Amino acid sequence: MITVSRLVAFEPGPWQSAAEWSRERGKAARRTETDLDQEAAKVAQAWPSPVGQLAAAILRQQADAQGELAVAYDDAGVVIDDATIAMGDLRQQMVSLQATVAGTPDMSGPDDSGVVTGTRAFDNLVEFLQNRAAAGQFTITAREILMQATDRDRAASIALLGIVGIDVPPTNDGPIDLSDDGIQLQADLNAQDRYGDCTTLSTLIGIAHSDPDFIRRHMVWDPETGTYQVTLYRDGEPVTVSVDPATLPTDGSQQAATNKPSWLSVYEQAIQQEFGDVANGQFEEVPIARITGEDVPRTGPPSAADIERAMDQDPRGVITADTANAPAQPDNVDPAKRVVPGHTYCVRGLDADGNVILQNPWGPGGGWHDGKYYPGEVHLTPEEYERWFSNGAVLNPPY
What we know:
Ferritin, Cathepsin B, Chain A, 5-stranded antiparallel beta sheet, 11 helices, elongated
């Protein structure tokens, strides 16, 4: 994904030059098309024999090819022009966001990946929570800007590579971005909604960061029907479910801030269609079995050593941990360390201090429950993690 520093440093000049070059090549191709058409007419008139007519037909084919090439050059110029304008607008949005964050007390960022951090000390609970919530919203905005910039950069790059004769691998993924970056960014922005499918979503988030190709293999776009063919598993056997992305429910999982559907929305709907209740068996082995066909037992929360071993694999393991039967946290716990009761998190690894990183599938901005705010990402010491989490599962590759 494009970084904040790269977006802020964006210069339109090279992109404008590429668009102009493409337009000029299009004009040259049209001139060649005209010349070949005229030459074909002359040959056909001068040599009415079969050989002459064949030569004229070949010249007309060459002219048609030049016409198609001219259209390709023109289209590429339009794509690059549009991307240039959009990138300039997104750059300005990011610069404005930087200025807003800089002018907001007790706020730092965005860093190069778009993360804004609240820095207010825990001396007033209400202000502390407001600070953390505002940082989460700033982060969502920054990441959305970066995602749009990445999409525009990719579109311009593909257009340019296509006209210079480099074969670009087909990406017939339908309306949802299934590139590695797209899959992982949608996982980071996932916001759980009405379905109580936290274990399902946490498993999918982990798979996205372990092996995004698994998602592409199990969620294939069918252009003839306009549906995604999602492979799930029932009793260990694969089943294929057709999901029309145009009919996804508006109150299922979405991308935070934009409320756009994601590949997780499609997966969620596929499970709902096939099994009738996407929330069933969340604190059992059911979600992983439905997604992968693997029978992965739930145990106590994987230890810090287990997490480190799983993350050192290539691809790395997928870990979920839940608070289903864990003791309640004390009322005076640091709000930055609050974990939702009866909820599953995706374990993303260990930070530089050895703390366990837990991603809340509610989304990067977190959410409220019973009058308390719960953050979108929590860092707990191994002791806190083992105290406040009751169960977990480790899905090791290959799966």
